[in-house]
UniProtKB/TrEMBL annotation:
NCBIfam families: argH
Record carries keyword Lyase: yes
GO BP annotations listed: L-arginine biosynthetic process via ornithine
Cross-referenced HAMAP family: Arg_succ_lyase (MF_00006)
Domain Argininosuccinate lyase C-terminal, residue spans: 365-431
Name listed for the protein in its UniProt record: Argininosuccinate lyase, isoform B
Lineage, top ranks: Eukaryota, Metazoa, Ecdysozoa, Arthropoda, Hexapoda
A GO CC term attached to the entry: cytosol
Protein family according to the UniProt entry: Belongs to the lyase 1 family. Argininosuccinate lyase subfamily.
């Protein structure tokens, strides 16, 4: 007969359809190691509370440790009656240790157990995600350093705006990822309080030392209200939100790159390894990698809505609805890991086409710098803006660039135009003037590189 965690008050087992709906093993088995770690600590806590002796605690700990190898080697046999990873681990333990194994769950509930497991898992997921983020930030800083001095048109509303350095554009995306990393670090600290010892909902009446358990499992404290602890999945929502934000940022980077890789722009070329062909048109080179990155933001953000809608309106403490948290959480993590890896590969292998970028610069993008030229000669900015607007319109009327207008004609718009205006017609000279902190001058980019390299080390 199969091992059951419950059933004393039942005369028949669950209907097959219910069993299959209730069975969470296909996704929660990935918590096996966290479940074993938490159980080992709990066995020791039972001994410290005088509920089992030290030899018994040792035996439980050793046998829980042995189960880890069965999972790793794939020799764990799932039986038809198994419901979730907690029931499987307990069944296996009881199979080896008999009655002793049946003592492990003393004062514990799967309600405090599963939240504890999820929090242990989350710590590792956050660490891995931070590692991938810092990898991309490093790649971006390397490419930015390599291409320092390369100019490109900067856009607002996707209309040519002002000249910027390619590195400045690339690092703008790295800074968004830096904040994502900081968000994850905040979540890690906030979530790092131990729920174990909350029981099903009311707490633990058997003298379990929760502060000791917290320290033993690497938590910085314990949850303060058992009813809150067992029903709380906010840390899962927060994590999926963090994943969504990363995915939104990657989607914006991907969109820029998709546009820049068109023949019309031709600013960058994706490596073959990150492009695909067309089954019909032989000449095609499609940026599928970037489209998959962009599209994933939809998948992950759907999970965010999914978990929020699952939690919405559930009554106090634990309800089985919460079991669905894992699918949203694990899928968000797995999909994000995939797109982070592809993004890193794209950036590592991207070809930056300096000539086309610089050929795309046009003199209308100098207009703002011309206005600043007049400002430096004492003209109020609003007037300077207006004067240059008239210069631009005159050039348009004549069908020439503003830099083609003779000095004598410029002086009709303002007597302050002098022969030194030619210096302002130099794109790279202009770029270097934007040297306030955060601007596109090289001095500012060097400081940005310093900040990002430090962040890549700290994440
Ligand atoms: N598999 C369950 C989950 O993931 C564990 C908690 C079950 N607790 C219960 N009282 N049925 O949510």
């Amino acid at each position: 007969s199969c091992y059951k965690m419950w059933g004393g008050r039942f005369t028949e087992g669950p209907h097959e359809a219910l069993h299959s709906l209730n069975n969470s093993l296909p996704y929660d088995s990935r918590l096996y190691a966290d479940d074993l770690d938490a159980s080992k600590a709990y066995a020791e806590a039972l001994h410290r509370a005088g509920l089992i002796n030290s030899a018994e605690a040792d035996k439980l700990v050793k046998n829980l440790e042995l189960l880890r190898f069965d999972w790793i080697e794939g020799t764990v046999k799932i039986l038809p009656g198994d419901e979730d990873v907690h029931t499987v681990n307990e069944r296996l333990l009881v199979e080896i240790t008999g009655e002793l194994g049946q003592r492990l769950h003393t004062g514990r509930s799967r309600n405090d157990q599963v939240v504890t497991d999820m929090k242990l898992w989350l710590r590792k997921a956050i660490r891995e995600t931070l590692g991938r983020l810092s990898g991309i930030i490093e790649t971006a800083t390397r490419q930015a350093e390599l291409h320092l001095g390369v100019l490109m048109p900067g856009y607002t509303h996707l209309q040519r705006a002002q000249t910027v350095q390619f590195s400045h554009w690339l690092l703008s995306h790295a800074f968004a990822l830096r904040e994502d990393g900081q968000r994850l670090l905040e979540l890690r600290d906030r979530a790092n309080v131990l729920p174990l010892g909350s029981g099903a909902l009311a707490g633990n009446p058997l003298g379990i030392d929760r502060l000791w358990l917290a320290e033993r499992l690497g938590f910085s404290g314990v949850t303060a209200n058992s009813m809150h602890a067992v029903g709380d999945r906010d840390f899962v929502v927060d994590f999926i939100y963090c994943c969504s934000m990363v995915s939104l940022h990657l989607s914006r980077l991907a969109e820029d790159l998709i546009i820049y890789s068109t023949k019309e722009f031709d600013f960058i070329k994706l490596a073959d390894g990150f492009s695909s062909g067309s089954s019909l048109m032989p000449q095609k080179r499609n940026p599928d990698s970037l489209e998959l990155i962009r599209g994933m933001a939809g998948v992950i953000t759907a999970n965010l809505t999914g978990i929020m809608m699952t939690i919405k309106g559930t009554p106090s403490t634990y309800n089985k609805d919460l079991q669905y948290d894992k699918q949203f959480c694990f899928q968000s993590f797995d999909k994000l890991s995939q797109v982070l890896e592809v993004t890193d590969g794209v950036l590592q292998t991207i070809q930056v086409k300096q000539e086309s970028m610089e050929a795309a610069l046009s003199t209308d993008m100098l207009a703002t710098d011309w206005a600043y030229y007049l400002v430096k000669k004492g003209v109020p900015f609003r007037q300077a803006h207006h004067i240059i607007g008239r210069v631009v319109s005159e050039a348009e009327k004549r069908g020439v660039d503003i830099t083609d207008l003779p000095l004598g004609d410029l002086q009709k718009f303002s007597p302050l135009f002098g022969s030194d205006i030619v210096a302002v017609a130099d794109y790279s000279n202009n770029v270097q003037q934007y040297n306030a902190i955060g601007g596109t001058a090289s001095s500012s980019i060097v400081e940005q590189l310093r900040l990002l390299k430090k962040c890549a080390r700290d994440l």
